[in-house]
Every structure is written in structure tokens, then in C-alpha cells.
Amino acid sequence: MSRRLRPLDRYVLHEFWRVLVATALGFPLLVIIIDLSEKLDAYLGRELPPMDIALAYLFGIADTMFLVLPAAVLFATVFTIGNFTRHSEITAAKASGISFHRFIAPIAVGAVGVTFLGLLLAEVVPPLNARRLELLQEKAFRNADQRANFAYASETGRVYRISQASVTGGTVEGIEIERRGTGPDYPTYVIAAGRGAWEPAEGWLLRDGVVHLLPDSLSNLTFHFDSLRDAGFREPPASLMANPKAPAEMGYRDLGRFIEAMERSGTNVNKLRVERMLKIAIPFTSVIIMLIGAPLATSTQRGGTAYGIGISLAITVVFLMLIQLTQAIGAGGLVQPELAAWLPGAFFGVLGSFLLYRVRT
Predict the structure, then answer these.
(1) pTM for this one?
(2) Which of 279, 225, 227, 228 is nearest to 253 (CA)?
(3) Which side of the chain, N or C, has fewer Cβ within a 10 Å radius?
(4) How far is CA 173 from CA 179, 207, 239, 295, in A?
């Protein structure tokens, strides 16, 4: 690829990546220092080994980097073009017949590369976050053997409502299983049993209950049983005790399956839908936000470095505020959740296109 790029393109791209790497790594390190200073006493109170704490924060770098990539692109764009402007390199390029749009093309290519890096991080971050929480003992169970009055939605579309479950005894009491169907060929059914016992080789054996078969909204066939095995109920007792994962611990596909399961159990999943779409929207914002930084950076000659820092910080703060605002809007159902995740990018895209159009080429 370097052979296909002109010397000027390589120079511009090199300067952009130099600032980008420093910013993308510097922000996470700053976050680590601040977070560690606040929580170190709590970690020491849990008697965590220093190596586990260090590994946990090492695993957390990828998550912070994913969130700050748009800001890193903005800082790199503003400072790179700002330096070119102050040293009259853009003026020299224009005098040679190279327009401003052509001059910043390598920066646009670099922003596209950052977008792909962000999409990769979106899939790498969840298992690292899970491991980080495990090392810091953030997911310790208060009562890992017993659980009462809870609902569990499986990935196969079934919902279990259980009054009491025990891992040690391998038993459940007061269980209700619901499977939604589509019609007479695949009917809805509800199984209600007084108790059940787990057998590792065979699965759950339910006792003393009834089966309600619902081929349609007008029919209800009821069967009483002394014992019954439901072939679809294969989750072992320990799985029923598991804490639900946070969106940060799930990739795009896993979060999609989790959302479908929660929808089947009647849970409001708008916030989760916004979180899922942000895994794509945030990386693509890197390209969009570059469109704003490039034209604004051409005016940094008057204010110098302080002006560039001010522009970058102001836009970053506005961007983060819009992310929080759109999450609330999407979770509240005022806007379709998937659309809400793209609103900050749409706003900055329109603004950036206008500023880029107005700049003197």
C-alpha cells in the first residue's frame, strides 16, 4: 500500500497516526490512574493479589480504548491539520494544485482504519470485561446455592418461572414453563409442576403438575401428570443461578440473542437495543467526527495548541453528552432504539459536511 501512496500522502498519514496512537493509549492510561486511585482501598479490602489487579486493568484498556476512539481521531485530526496550517504546509499544497479535500484524504483513510479497529474491539472487549470483573471479584454471588421467586429466559425461547431452586439438592419447586408457539402445527404450551429434580444423564424430571396446550387463542387442552420430562428443559441447576451478563460482557450477536430472550419474557429491552447498536455506531463515528475536526483545525493558527485542545475537548464533551441523551431517549421509547444510537453520528455528520463544504479548498 505504501507504494501506491504519494510521498505527501505517506507524510500526512504518518503524522496523523503518530498523534492518534499517543491519544488512543494516553486516554485509557489516564482513566486507569483515576479509577485505581478511587478504588484501590476497596480492592485491598478484598485481599486481591496485586497481579490480579494489574491484569484486570490491563484487560480494561481495550474497553476504554473502544469508547475513546472517536475522541482520539478528533484530537489526531485537529492537531495534525493544525500543525500543517501553522507551518503553511497546507498553503504550499494548495499552491501546488492539491486541494484541501485531497490533502486530508489520507486522514480519512486513517479514520476508516480506526472504524474497523473499533468494530474488532467491540467483539474482543466483552470476554475481556468478563475476565476483568472476575479478577476484581465484582460478580461474587451472595447466595450461589439458593434462589427464590425468579424468572429465567432461555436462548431457545422458553421462559421458566421458579419459586425455589437449589444447586446442592438439584431441585426446583413451584416451576412454570412457557413456550410460545406459532399455531396448531407449533402450539404454545404451559407446564406447571409442584417440584422437579435434576438427573445429570436424563435432565429434569417434573412431578405433580399439569400441561396446558394452546393450539390457538380459543382452545385450551389440559393434561394432568404424575411425572414428566420436558426435553427442552436442559439447563442444569447452576445455570439457573447465573447472574445475567451486562451488555459490556456480550458481543453483538450474544447481546442480540439475550435481547430476544428478554423480549419473550416480557422485559423492556429498549436500553439493551440501544447498547447493541452503539457497538456499531461508535466505531463509525470516528469517520464522521473527522469531518468536523478537519475544517475546524484550519483556524487553529490563531489560537495555537490551546485552541486545538479546546476545540477537541468541547466536541468530545458534546459527543459524550449526546450519547447519554440518546440512550435515555431510546430506552424511553421516544425514538426507535436502533435509530437513537445513530443520532449523535447523524448530528455530527450533517455539521461536519456543512463545515467541510464551507472550508476554502
Answers:
(1) 0.67
(2) 279
(3) N
(4) 19, 10, 16, 66
Rounded Cα distance between 278 and 282, Å, is 6
Of 141, 219, 232, the C-alpha closest to 187 is 219
Angle at Cα 69 formed by Cα 65 and Cα 74, nearest 5°?
145
Q: Which three cell numbers stand for residue 324?
A: 447519554
Question: Taking each helix axis from N to C terminus, what angle separates 300-332 and 337-358, rounded to the nearest 10 degrees?
Answer: 160
Residue 255 cell numbers, joined? 447481546
Domain residue extents for the chain: 7-139+269-358, 146-242
| 194/238 Cα distance (integer angstroms) | 20
CA angle 42, 48, 51 (to 5 degrees): 120
Alpha-carbon Rg for the chain, nearest whole angstrom, is 27
DSSP 281-301: HHHHHHHHHHHHHHHHHTTHH
| Residue 162 phi, psi dihedral angles, 5° rounding | -125, 135
How far apart CA 346 and CA 281 sit, in angstroms, is: 10
- 8 Å CB contact between 65 and 128: no
Distances in Å between the Cα of 12 and the Cα atoms of 34, 108, 110 are: 33, 11, 10
Residue 211, all three cell numbers: 400441561
Buried b / exposed e across 270-286, counting CB within 10 Å, b at 16+?
Answer: bebbbbbbbbbbbbbbb
User: What is the per-residue pLDDT across 201-230, written as a single tens digit (0 to 9) for each?
Assistant: 888 999 999 999 888 777 788 999 999 998
- Check if the beta carbon of residue 321 is closer than 8 Å to that of residue 259: no
For residue range 40-96, list pLDDT tens digits in order: 888 888 888 888 888 988 988 888 888 888 888 888 888 888 888 888 888 888 888
